[in-house]
Amino acid sequence: MTLTRLGLATRLGSSAVDAGAHVMKARNRWWLQIGLLFVLGFCLLETGARLPLCAAQSAAKRGENDPATQASPDAGEQGALNDAFRSAQGNPQILIKNLEAFLTRFPQSSRREVVLRTICTYALQANAPGVAVQYGQMLLEMAPDDPKLLALLIDALARQNDQASRTLAIDYSSRLVKFAENRHAQTAAAGGSNNPQWAERIAAIYAQRAGFYRDSGDFDKAFADDEKSYANYPTALVAEQLGDASLKKGDSGRAVDYYLAAFVFPDKNPDLARRQEIRRKVGSLYMELHHSEQGLGDLALSRYDALIPLLAERLSSDHPQNVGRHDPFEFVLEGIDGTQLPLTGYRGKVVVMDFWATWCGPCRLQGKLVEQVAESFRTDSSAAFLSLNVDQDRSGVPAFLKQEGWTVLEAYAQGLDQLFSVSQLPTVMIFDRQGRIVYRQEGVNPESFAEDLSKHLRETLRSQ
Questions:
Q1: Which three-class secondary structure state does DSSP give residue 373?
Q2: CA-CA distance, 151 to 15, in Å (whole number)?
Q3: What are the C-alpha distances in Å from 234 to residues 68, 228, 258, 310?
Q4: Which run of H or E residues covers position 440?
Q5: What is the enclosing helix (H) or strand (E) of 207?
Q6: HEC profile for 8-66?
Q7: Which residues of the chain have pLDDT under 50?
Q8: What is the pLDDT of residue 190?
Q9: Which residue in 352, 311, 319 sits closest to 335, CA to CA?
Q10: Helix axes 55-65, 73-88, angle to 10 degrees
Q11: CB neighbour list of residue 140: distance below 8 Å, 6 or more residues apart
Q12: Do β-strands 332-335 and 340-342 pair in parallel, antiparallel, or remain unpaired?
C-alpha cells in the first residue's frame, strides 16, 4: 500500500484564495484513498501511544483474546477507531459516519478534538461542506482563535454559497485577518524581518473577505477590502477587480489606472487569455475617454515604471534555484538556518535524499522512517542523508521541524526537485558515488519502506 501526498492542514489564508493550492494526483485512486485513511488512522492511534502502526489490522483479534485489553476503556476506544477506519474501506462518507458514531459512543474521549478535526478534513474532501461547518463550529468552541480552523471553516462556508454562510464567513475572515495582523505586528516588534509572506497572507484574507462582501451586494466594503489587499500585496487579479469596481462607481480614470496595473503586472506564468481580456477593457475605456488609443502605450509604460519599485522586494526575494545547473553536486542549497550548503562536499559519498513538504501528511511518516534508517547507518561515513523541503511558503518550516524533532540534515531543495522532476511527495532517492540515481521511491509503504531503503543503501555501499 503506497501513500502519496495529502495536505491535511490548511495554510493561513489559503483556503479559497490560494490559486497555487497543491492538488493530489489521482492515479491509482483506490489505493490512494486507502492510504489516506491509513495515515489519518495512524495519527489518531498515535495520540493514544498504545497501539503499534499495524493496529488497524490486528486490534480486533487481540481484543478478543486479551482480557487486559478488553478491560481497558482506552483500549476500547482504540479498537473502535481501528474498526472505524478499517470498515470505511476508503470511502470518506462511511468514515465520517463511523467517526460520528465513535463520538456518540465515547462523548468524553480524550481524542475528541482529533476526531472532530478528522471529520472536518474528510468532509471537505468529500464535498460535504455542511458537515465540515457543523463539526468545525464545535471545534471553534474549544479553540476560538485557531487560524487553521478558521480558514477551514471559511473554505466550507464559501462552498455553501448562501447568504447566511457568507455572513458567517465574513465574521470568520475578520477574526482571521485580525490574528494575522497581530502576529505580523508581534514579529516586527520582536525584531523579526519584514517577511513578505505575512503581507501576502493578510492580502489574501482581505481579498477573500472582499469576495464575500461582493457576493452579498455590499460593494463599498468589497472595494475597501480589495484596496487593503492591494496595499498589502499587489496582484494583477485584485488590480483588475479594483478596475471593475472603479468603473461601476463611475471613476473611469481610476479604472484605467487599475486596469493598466493589472495589464503590465510582471508574472512568471501569465494567463494570456486573461491578459487579453484586460487589454480589451482598458482599450475600450481609454477610447471612450479620449476617442483614440494615442498615449495609451506611454501611460502603460509609466504605470509599469511606478509599479516595479513597489514589487522590488518581492521580485528580489525569490529563492535562488541554481538556474542552468544540471549536476546535482554543483548545487548550493540553503539550510533551514539560512546557511549555505554546497553539495560538492558530498561527491564520492552514497547519498539519500528525502523530498518532503509541511502540508504532506505521509511525509511526516516517511520522515520518521528515514530517521530510523539514518540511525542504523550513522557510523558509516560513506553514507549521507539529506532531508529536502519543497514548500513555497517557508515560514512554517522551522516550527514544523522543531515539532517533529528530526535529526537528519535539513535544507531547502532549491530546484533539486525540479531537476529530478519530483511530482509526488514524499519521494526518496539514493545516489551512488558517481552521482547516479540507483533507487527512487515515490510515496511510502509503511510496512516495507525502512527495510527496502536499508537494503538498497547497503547494496549501493557494497558495490563500490
A1: helix
A2: 6
A3: 62, 9, 11, 8
A4: strand 437-442
A5: helix 196-215
A6: CCCCCCCCCCCCCCCCCCCCCHHHHHHHHHHHHHHHHHHHHCCCCCCHHHHHHHHHHHC
A7: 1-71
A8: 67
A9: 319
A10: 130
A11: 146, 149, 150, 153
A12: antiparallel
Sheet holding 409-412, edge to edge: 340-342, 332-335, 409-412, 383-389, 350-356, 427-431, 437-442
At which residue does the C-alpha cell 525540479 appear?
418
Taking alpha carbons only, the member of 457, 443, 436 closest to residue 375 is 457
Output the CA torsion 276→280→281→286 (10° steps).
130
Cell 462552498 locates to 159
Q: How far is it, in rounded angstroms, from Cα 155 to Cα 34? A: 25
Please report the pLDDT score of residue 138 as a whole number: 94
183 grid coordinates: 502576529
pTM over 0.70: no
Cα–Cα distance for residue pair 312/252, rounded to 1 Å:
28
Q: How far apart are CA 180 and CA 178, in angstroms?
A: 5
Closest of 220, 180, 168, 185 to residue 204, by C-alpha: 180
Give the C-alpha separation, 123 to 156, whole Å: 9
Of 241, 178, 185, 236, nearest to 205 by C-alpha is: 178
- Across 408-433, b (16+ Cβ under 10 Å) vs e yields bebbbbbbbbebbebebbbbbbbbbb
Task: Tell me phi and psi for residue 441, to 5 degrees.
Answer: -135, 125
Closest to 206 measured CA to CA, from 195, 214, 217, 216:
214
pLDDT score at 338? 82
Residue 464 corresponds to which cell in the numbers above?
Answer: 563500490
pLDDT for the residue numbered 33: 36
Give the pLDDT of residue 60: 37
Give the three-state DSSP class for 357: coil
The answer to whether residues 120 and 140 touch, using CB atoms and an 8 Å cutoff, is no
Paired strand residues for 439? 430
For 265, counting Cβ atoms within 10 Å of its Cβ (0-12 exposed, 13-18 middle, 19+ buried), the class is buried
According to DSSP, the residues that pair with 429 across neighbouring strands are: 353, 440
What integer pLDDT is reported at residue 12 of this predicted model? 29
Q: What's the rounded Cα separation, in Å, for the pair 313 and 335?
A: 21
3-state secondary structure of 425: coil
How far is CA 414 from each of CA 215, 404, 419, rounded to the nearest angstrom?
40, 22, 10
Q: How many Å apart are CA 40 and CA 105, to the nearest integer?
A: 20
Which helix H or strand E contains 248, and what residues bound it? Answer: helix 236-248
pLDDT at 410: 94
